[in-house]
Amino acid sequence: FDELFSEDMLGDDLEAWLDGLVPYVLEQSDVAGSVVVVVKDGQVLLEKGYGYADLATRQPVDPKDTLFRPGSVSKLFTWTAVMQLVEQGKLDLDKDVNQYLDFKIPPYQGKPVTLRNIMTHTTGMEEQIRWLIATDPNAVAPLGEALKHWVPERIFAPGTTPAYSNYATAVAGYIVQRVSGEPFDAYIKRHIFDPLGMSHLSFSQPLPPALLAQVSKGYSTASDAKPKEYELINMAPAGSLAASGDDMGRFMIAHLQDGEFNGARILSQATARMMHG
């Protein structure tokens, strides 16, 4: 297939297919707008916005400038930051995380939590949504305070049972912050965003005003057309990212190419392959 068709032809066919599919899906799902980014062989094959980022102003979705909330995909950036510090010898995936913290996570049946447990969602912690999402900036605590406020119960032995945990992911982000000496959002920007040339995204809360103005409005339904308030995340490393489709494409390519994008490397090939398992 690749030998018969050029990249331009593949892109044209893909765009024609998406142009027929995505508007229909948006209409049927009552969704205001979306962005699609397709990558191939280290390059963006196609990126395109559909629908509206703001229904009131009829602002169309722009793949380079419109920011969406990728939610728990944020966790992959946190894992990448952890692996950068593993690569530098500053973190060990199999040591008790308490040696990196200024508070204590109790053992369960005598077994501690490790970063490997955290990154594979096998800490055994119960998952609760309480105190996770807010819309008032005054209700968002600094990361360390949020983690110390409530430590979840351990209900499984570590390493035995997959159990999704936003809290554990936030612990990993806090460890990145403490070991690097940089605020978590600043670390991610300096060591992942900047090397990859990513400029339309942020973990910061509140968002810088220029980026906040580019965030797609959130609607329960397009027909309702009432925008929701911007959600703030107390466990920021688990889900506070706002990002453009174009920048997410760069990050995706970097991982597909074992840590490298356009000559910039965020992980060594060996570390990326270890991370990908």
Q: Would you write up a description of this structure?
A:
This protein has 277 residues and is an alpha+beta fold. The chain is 35% helix and 15% strand. The chain has a three-stranded antiparallel beta sheet with strand order 1-2-3, with helices on both faces. It has a three-stranded antiparallel beta sheet with strand order 4-10-6. Helix 2 (74-87) crosses helix 5 (166-180) and helix 2 (74-87) crosses helix 6 (184-193). The longest helix has 23 residues, at 7-29. It is globular, with a radius of gyration of 20 Å. The two termini are 29 Å apart.
Mean model confidence by pLDDT: 94
- How many helix segments? 9
**Unreliable residue stretches:** 1-5
Order of helices and strands: HEEEEHHEHHHEHEEEEHEEH
| Strand-pairing-aware structural class | alpha+beta
The neighbouring-strand order within the major sheet is 1-2-3
- Number of β-strand runs: 12
Per DSSP, what share of the residues sits in E-state strands of 2 or more residues?
A: 5-15%
Fraction of residues in helix: 25-40%
Radius of gyration: 20 Å
- Biggest sheet layout: 3 strands, antiparallel
Terminal Cα separation, in Å?
29 Å
Shape descriptor: globular
What's the SSE blueprint?
Layout: H1 7-29, E1 33-40, E2 43-54, E3 59-60, E4 67-68, H2 74-87, H3 115-119, E5 133-134, H4 143-149, H5 166-180, H6 184-193, E6 201-202, H7 209-212, E7 218-219, E8 227-228, E9 232-233, E10 242-244, H8 245-256, E11 260-261, E12 264-265, H9 269-276
Antiparallel strand pairs: 1-2, 2-3, 4-10, 5-9, 6-10, 7-8, 11-12
Q: Which short descriptors sum up this protein?
A:
single chain; 277 residues; alpha+beta; 9 helices; 12 strands; 35% helix; 15% strand
